[in-house]
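Researcher: I'd like a structural prediction for the single chain below. Treat it as a standalone chain; there are no partners to consider.
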Amino acid sequence: DITCELAVPEEQVGPFKQAVGNLTRGQGQVEEV
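Model: Treating it as a single chain, here is the predicted structure.
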């Protein structure tokens, strides 16, 4: 995962982190349910 993050251009880091955050939130909600 760290290697992938380093390979991602800085311009795409923002949207990438947002996407990961959304996935993490989704998983958290599923776990709570």
